[in-house]
Design brief:
With 65 residues, this protein is an alpha+beta fold. The protein has one domain. The chain is 62% helix and 18% strand. It contains one helix and two strands. It has a two-stranded antiparallel ribbon with strand order 1-2. Strand 1 and strand 2 form a beta hairpin. The longest helix has 40 residues.
Length: 65
């Protein structure tokens, strides 16, 4: 198995020894799960800010009109 990534605008390749495959695969899956969770947290932050903006707008409106 070969692991690839981009570094400094160049593609890098490294061969994974068969005795390390399970460990590398597990770490790769954990990293993907982290990235997805991070993206979701970022999206939740945007949603929270949008709600706060709506609340602020409502608070600035005149209560009788």
């Amino acid at each position: 198995m070969v692991l690839t990534w981009s570094e400094g605008g160049k593609s890098r390749l490294v061969s994974i020894p068969s005795n390390r495959l399970a460990d590398v695969k597990k770490k790769s899956e954990e990293y993907l799960r982290f990235r997805r969770a991070r993206a979701r947290v970022t999206e939740m932050g945007r949603e929270i800010i949008a709600v706060m903006d709506r609340i602020e707008k409502l608070r600035r409106e005149e209560p009788w009109g």
